[in-house]
Amino acid sequence: MRVRYSAGEDGKLVKKAEIYTCDEHGINFADVDSEAVSIVRKLKGAGFDTYIVGGAVRDLILGKKPKDFDIVSAASPARIKRLFRNSRIIGRRFRLVHVYFGERIFEVSTFRSLKDGHTSNTFGKIDEDVFRRDFTMNALFYDPEQQIVVDYIGGIQDIKKRLVKPIIPLPEIFTEDPVRMIRAVKYAAAADFSLPLNVKMKIKKHSNLLSSISPSRLTEEIFKIIFSVRSAEIVDLLDKLGLYCYLQPQAADMMHKNIAFRKSYLNRMSKLKGEEKYRGQAMETLFYDYLESAQTWEPGVIENYREIFKIARSFVMPMNPPRYDLEYAVRKFLTAHGITVKKSHPKPVGEASAVKPKKRRRRKPKAKGQETV
Q1: Is 253 a catalytic residue?
Q2: Which residue in 105, 152, 227, 356 has the fewest CB atoms around it within 10 Å?
Q3: Residue 15: beta bridge partners?
Q4: What pTM was computed for the model?
Q5: Is 116 a catalytic residue?
């Protein structure tokens, strides 16, 4: 292991980071996305320090093959945009760049500083950027060219201990952004890591802060959960720590009142493989057991599809999924019960709403030699 130093305020060398080589961090380079590597290589070739960062590095160290690869660089969004024609700048408060390779998207951000706190939106340096990230396991920087991991905060040791350890001080981490509570639980359950007792206590204390989170953010987090191969474990731990009642209040309430419902609900979650092609395929698990217990479903044709759709939509609130995803999930449920949705009848002839198109007036042809003024 090597050590990265920098000059302190008194001019003396201060240890900044530990650098782990390929033999030490154990990342299999074959599991690293080739397109992510090409993005890093191009930015480094242009003179900018650039790394793969976040959950992808954590998963690679754990021997998993990541689905997504986020990249962080010293280059500004404008400079990144100029280097990649297949990209666009997004974001209002803090701009970052999406680089496209076919249907795949790679998010490239610029190092942020601590000037405005842990949610800073000002550009900075790598040794500042690391301390505004949430947990040590997600604050490791991987250079695929040199195949080294740069660790400023003991993240690799925490991964070896299988520990979810916050970087941001406990009095601030969850009050600044309550969604971090969901992520802490998700990381612990998905990777079979432990949450320290003081972290669990803080989560239980501040769980009510999730009530202020917008439905769109909660929807995003729920989709991440049900697309995990360990969704049942995540939901179970979220519920035990008092968080699931803010994501799926009706389901959480039924799990507490009915042991059979809880067992069936979590069992259905455990069957998700994280490989579902459509979000609606995974989303069905959120309301399946509720609809199943609501009435007896007889095979045939139904006319009250809209009512069933409204019931399912109400049950998953405050989640606010795209209508297409929820319709897909409801129809999947009905199809599994041998039920066909009756097609709507055409409107009777003469029913209001039909507006006759206006006739277009034909222009008279110009006379030969006539000029237009």
Answers
A1: no
A2: 356
A3: 5
A4: 0.84
A5: no
